[in-house]
C-alpha cells in the first residue's frame, strides 16, 4: 500500500507495464497449452462483423468444459475471439480491460476502435514471442467504428493481418475455402449467420475438439456490440 | 487566524510551541486561494462541480480538466496547485487498479479515500518532501451507496454529504447547508451545484470569467463516473442564471 521511502520518484506506477517486465525475472515459460479452445471464424457482412466459435474447452483429447465463452466484446466497438490456451485468453482479457478502462477515464469522447486494439494485441503477442514466453492463442479481432468495419487476426507468433473473412486453427483449412467461395460484400445478417453456421457444422463433423454448442457475436455499425447464443444440433 | 510562525515555519518537520505545523497550514492556504470546488451527495449519487477561473482569453474551453475519473465508479475534483493535484489523481488511479487486480472487485470508496489520505499525509512527514498544495474532493458509488470524501493537504480525510474547498467555500457551504440533500436526485443536484457556483463566484466579482466543469456518479449514469452530459449542464446553467437574476431583482 505505502511505497518505501526510496521509491518516491516512481510513485505513479502503471501496473500494465509492470506485468510485461515481470516475465524477465521468471525462469518459466510457456511450453505447451493445457486447456484449449478450437477454431474461431469471423466475417464482415453488410452492416458489420460476425464472429462464431464453439463453447468448448478441451483438456488434451477430453472435451472437458462445454460452456467456455471464447468470444467477448471489448470496449464499445470491438469483439475478440480466441482459440488456444484459455488461461492465456483470460490474461489477454485482463490486459484489454485495463486498456479500455484507462481509455474510458479520459472521458473525452474518444474511444479505442478495433484497429487500435488489434495493433495493441499484435505488439503484446509479438513481444511475448520474442521472450520465448508466448501467449498461446490465435486471436480474431473485429469491430465497427465510425462506420468503418475492421476484421483482423493475430496469432502466438505475432503474425497479423486483416481480411474480409478470417479463421483460426482448423477453421483455416475447413472454413476458409467455404468462405472464399460464398462470401460477398453485401451479405445480410441472416445470410451471414447461415454461412457461419455452415462453417461451424463442417468443423463439428471434422474437428475432433469441436463441441455442438455455439456462440455467435455480432457488431453493428453505430450500435454497441451484442450477442446471441445458439445451439447447433448434431446430425 | 494567521500568525507568523517565525522560525517554526521553515520545515514541515518542525512543530511550533503551540503544537502547529505551519508548513501544512501554508499548504492549505494554497488550496484556499484557488477556484471553488463543490461536491454534494444526493439521494442517488454524487455531483462534483469546479469553478475553473479562466486566466487567459486564449484558453480553449474544455481544456485544463480539474475533475478526473479515478476508476469506473469514482471521480476526483482537484483544488489548489494543479500539478500537485495531478500527482494525487495519478496515485489514486494506481491504487484503484491495484486493488481491483488483487481483490477482483472495484475499490470501495472508503478504502480509496484512506489510501489517498495516507499518501498525502506521507508527504508531510519528511523534510525533503513538501506537502501537497492541493486538496481533493473524492466522490464514488460502491455497494454501500454514494459516498463523498474530502482530503486536505494535511492528510485528513472525512466523509461528507456536502463539501467545498477554495475561494468561495464559506458561501458555498452555507448554501449547501440550506439544501435538503437526502431528498434530492442528482439531476436536481446538478442545478443546485450550478446555482451555488454562480452565486459564490458572482459575490466575489474579482474574476468574472470562469468555466463550470461538472461531473456525476449516479444511478442515471449507470453508477459510472462521467462528465455531466452537455444538455443537462446547459439546462443547469440556464436555471442557475435565471435564479440569480431573480435574486438580484429582489
From TrEMBL, chain A:
What Pfam family is a match for this entry?
Proteasome
The organism's place on the tree of life at top rank: Eukaryota
Q: Could you provide one GO biological process annotation from this protein's UniProt record? A: proteolysis involved in protein catabolic process
One GO cellular component assignment for this chain's record is:
proteasome core complex, beta-subunit complex
- Compartment(s) where it occurs, according to its Swiss-Prot or TrEMBL record: Cytoplasm; Nucleus
| InterPro entries noted in UniProt | Ntn_hydrolases_N (IPR029055), Proteasome_alpha (IPR050115), Proteasome_beta4 (IPR016295), Proteasome_bsu_CS (IPR016050), Proteasome_sua/b (IPR001353), Proteasome_suB-type (IPR023333)
Q: What is its main location?
A: cytoplasm
Keywords recorded for this protein, A-Z: Cytoplasm, Nucleus, Proteasome
Instruction: Report the family membership.
Output: Belongs to the peptidase T1B family.
Protein task: Non-catalytic component of the proteasome.
What is the recorded name of this protein? Proteasome subunit beta
From TrEMBL, chain B:
Q: Which residues form the Proteasome alpha-type subunits domain?
A: 8-30
Q: Does the keyword Transcription regulation apply?
A: no
The coiled-coil regions, if any, are none
Q: Pfam families, alphabetically?
A: Proteasome (PF00227), Proteasome_A_N (PF10584)
Sorted alphabetically, the Gene Ontology BP terms of this entry are:
ubiquitin-dependent protein catabolic process
Q: Subunit notes for this chain?
A: The 20S proteasome core is composed of 28 subunits that are arranged in four stacked rings, resulting in a barrel-shaped structure. The two end rings are each formed by seven alpha subunits, and the two central rings are each formed by seven beta subunits.
| Protein name stated in the entry | Proteasome subunit alpha type
Q: Which GO terms describe its cellular component?
A: cytoplasm; nucleus; proteasome core complex, alpha-subunit complex
- Indicate where this protein resides in the cell: Cytoplasm; Nucleus
State the species of origin. Olea europaea subsp. europaea
Amino acid at each position: 500500500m505505502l511505497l518505501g521511502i526510496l521509491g518516491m520518484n516512481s510513485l505513479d506506477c502503471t501496473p500494465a507495464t509492470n506485468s510485461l517486465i515481470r516475465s524477465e525475472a521468471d525462469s518459466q515459460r510457456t511450453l505447451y497449452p493445457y486447456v484449449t479452445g478450437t477454431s474461431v471464424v469471423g466475417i464482415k457482412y453488410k452492416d458489420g462483423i460476425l464472429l462464431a466459435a464453439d463453447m468448448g474447452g478441451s483438456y488434451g483429447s477430453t472435451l472437458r468444459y462445454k460452456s467456455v465463452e471464447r468470444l467477448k466484446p471489448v470496449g464499445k466497438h470491438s469483439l475478440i475471439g480466441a482459440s488456444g490456451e484459455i488461461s492465456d485468453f483470460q490474461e489477454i482479457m485482463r490486459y484489454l480491460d485495463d486498456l479500455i478502462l484507462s481509455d474510458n477515464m479520459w472521458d473525452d469522447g474518444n474511444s479505442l476502435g478495433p484497429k487500435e486494439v488489434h495493433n495493441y494485441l499484435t505488439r503484446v503477442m509479438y513481444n511475448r514471442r520474442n521472450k520465448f514466453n508466448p501467449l498461446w492463442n490465435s486471436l480474431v479481432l473485429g469491430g465497427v467504428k465510425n462506420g468503418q468495419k475492421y476484421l483482423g487476426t493475430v496469432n502466438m507468433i505475432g503474425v497479423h493481418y486483416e481480411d474480409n473473412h478470417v479463421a483460426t486453427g482448423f477453421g483455416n483449412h475447413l472454413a476458409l475455402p467455404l468462405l472464399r467461395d460464398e462470401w460477398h460484400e453485401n451479405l445480410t445478417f441472416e445470410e451471414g449467420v447461415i454461412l457461419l453456421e455452415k462453417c461451424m457444422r463442417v468443423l463439428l463433423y471434422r474437428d475432433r475438439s469441436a463441441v455442438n454448442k455455439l456462440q455467435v457475436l455480432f457488431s453493428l455499425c453505430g450500435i454497441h456490440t451484442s450477442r446471441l447464443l445458439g445451439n447447433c444440433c448434431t446430425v | 487566524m494567521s500568525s507568523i510562525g517565525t522560525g517554526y515555519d521553515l520545515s514541515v518537520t518542525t512543530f511550533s510551541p503551540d503544537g502547529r505545523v505551519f508548513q501544512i497550514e501554508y499548504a492549505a492556504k494554497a488550496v484556499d486561494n484557488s477556484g471553488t470546488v463543490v461536491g454534494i451527495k444526493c439521494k442517488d449519487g454524487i455531483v462534483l462541480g469546479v469553478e475553473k477561473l479562466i486566466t487567459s482569453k486564449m484558453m480553449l474551453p474544455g481544456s485544463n480538466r480539474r475533475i478526473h475519473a479515478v476508476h469506473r465508479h469514482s471521480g476526483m475534483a482537484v483544488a489548489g496547485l494543479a500539478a500537485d493535484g495531478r500527482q494525487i489523481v495519478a496515485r489514486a488511479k494506481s491504487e484503484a487498479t491495484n486493488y481491483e487486480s488483487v481483490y477482483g472487485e472495484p475499490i470501495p470508496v472508503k478504502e480509496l479515500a484512506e489510501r489517498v489520505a495516507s499518501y498525502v499525509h506521507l508527504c508531510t512527514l519528511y523534510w525533503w518532501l513538501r506537502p501537497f498544495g492541493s486538496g481533493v474532493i473524492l466522490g464514488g458509488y460502491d455497494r454501500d451507496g454514494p459516498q463523498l470524501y474530502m482530503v486536505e493537504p494535511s492528510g485528513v480525510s472525512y466523509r461528507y454529504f456536502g463539501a467545498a474547498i477554495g475561494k468561495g467555500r464559506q458561501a458555498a457551504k452555507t448554501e449547501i447547508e440550506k439544501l435538503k440533500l437526502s431528498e434530492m436526485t442528482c439531476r436536481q443536484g446538478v442545478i443546485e451545484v450550478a446555482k451555488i457556483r454562480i452565486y459564490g463566484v458572482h459575490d466575489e466579482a474579482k474574476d468574472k470569467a470562469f468555466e463550470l466543469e461538472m461531473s456525476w456518479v449516479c444511478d442515471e449514469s449507470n453508477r459510472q463516473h462521467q462528465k455531466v452530459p452537455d444538455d443537462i449542464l446547459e439546462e443547469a446553467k440556464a436555471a442557475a442564471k435565471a435564479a440569480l437574476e431573480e435574486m438580484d431583482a429582489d
